[in-house]
Amino acid sequence: MGDRERRFRDCLGRFATGVTVVTVEHEHGVHGATVGSFTSVSLEPPLVMVSLDRRSRMCGLLTGAPSFGVDILAAHQRDLALHFAGRPLPADTPVSWEPDAATPSLTGCAAHLDCVPWAAYDGGDHVLHVGRVRDFTTRDAEPLVFHGGAFRVLDTAPGHHAWTGTLDGPADGAWSPGAAALYSPLGH
Predict the structure, then answer these.
(1) CATH for 3-155, options being 2.30.110.10, 3.30.2310.20, 3.40.190.10, 3.40.50.2000
(2) Across 137-148, average pLDDT
(3) Which of 21, 37, 41, 137 could form a disulfide with 51 if both were Cys (CB 3.0 to 4.6 A apart)?
(4) What's the pLDDT band for 188 if we cut at 50, 70, 90?
């Protein structure tokens, strides 16, 4: 990696992200990959996007797959983030999967999205895979966060909220009662 690319990567590392594991089932079993480039795209229809290095095994497996999953990791799942990023857990440490999930889902995640491919777009050295969300589940769990090359913990001090002092938060009356429905795609 050249100096400019390294500095650009460091610049992008200033943006905090959640940590996901994208999963796909194939003829040899389940494959998962840790992905930080994940975002919501649309509420109607419900669409999400993952950006995958076009040289990665996951990118090849996702191309043509009938479905894929996105697990949003919880704060206690740092070891799984590392495992699916290529730093395997010890051989005697099992990876636990939800038994009845439509697409492979790790046990204990903050959320899981079951997706069908919608579109794929050229993204330079990456492919942008957009999926339509068929179903999703959530748990009351703090997310795993990545920033500046390290995992981080959210500030969850009582009374502290991102909206505090903005005059644009729910408590300030800026949201109409019907607006809450916009944040619940598929009615869940």
Answers:
(1) 2.30.110.10
(2) 92
(3) 37
(4) very low
